[in-house]
Specification:
InterPro entries: Methyltransf_25, SAM-dependent_MTases_sf. The protein is of the alpha/beta class. It has a single domain, classed as Vaccinia Virus protein VP39 (Rossmann fold, 3-Layer(aba) Sandwich), CATH 3.40.50.150. Helices cover 32% and strands 32% of the residues. A 7-stranded mixed β-sheet has the order 3-2-1-4-5-9-8, with helices on both faces. Strands 6-7 form a two-stranded antiparallel ribbon. Strand 4, helix 6 and strand 5 form a beta-alpha-beta unit. The longest helix is centred in the middle third of the chain and has 14 residues. The termini are far apart.
Length: 201
């Protein structure tokens, strides 16, 4: 049975968008992983940021490196903030689970967003990743360290997270033609994030 808290995620990021972008660290603790991701992408390549939030700091970093960014987020206030700050790029208010674009991208990233999906929805997302990925595209996402659900809090509301087991992530990636370039569970140099970096074959 699906945890009912999973249905609240979109509403939480709609209601508390301002609190999120005010609290979101902008010191780019993720930069080593972002740089590994960018090394797999052609210069001036196209990046799809799934769950882009306000665009800060990750999309902003990609833009400053000369990449063209398309962002998708289910929170309309987040997308409006992206449109305000980065008008030369493309920002789409949509649910990440719905493959609404026909474009192919050189890089696809779902940082701190994919892990809000239920296990069932995460399994379905690998076909979405494949649909968006060009040949040799980079794919990076964060997950939990092992199979299970975890409930955090944000602005006093329960915040749902879920993860598959590492072996299943590897299986799902392989089924869609991705090979794992690098994976670190609870990376101490990335504030404990579990990070997956893969590339399409």
């Amino acid at each position: 049975m699906t945890n009912p808290l999973a249905k609240n995620i979109i509403g939480i990021y709609q209601r508390h968008a301002k609190a999120f972008w005010q609290r979101r660290p902008t010191n780019l603790f993720e930069q080593p992983w972002l740089d590994d991701f960018l090394r797999l992408i052609p210069t001036n390549g196209k990046i799809l940021d799934i769950g882009c939030g306000s665009g800060m700091p990750i999309a902003d970093y990609f833009i400053r490196q000369g990449f063209q960014v398309t962002g998708i987020d289910s929170s309309k206030p987040m997308i409006e903030r992206c449109q305000q700050h980065f008008p030369q790029h493309r920002w789409i208010h949509a649910d990440m689970r719905e493959p609404i674009l026909s474009d192919k991208f050189d890089g696809v990233i779902a940082w701190d967003s994919f892990f809000h999906l239920t296990p069932e929805d995460q399994r379905e997302m690998f076909t979405v990743f494949r649909q968006y990925a060009s040949a040799r595209a980079a794919l990076m996402f964060t997950s939990g360290p092992d199979s299970g659900e975890a409930i955090g809090t944000f602005e006093g509301e329960a915040l749902y997270h879920a993860s598959l087991a590492p072996a299943e992530y590897r299986q799902r990636l392989a089924e869609q033609g991705f090979h794992v370039v690098k994976m670190v569970a609870e990376d101490p140099d990335c504030q404990g994030r579990t990070v997956w970096l893969a590339q399409s074959q």
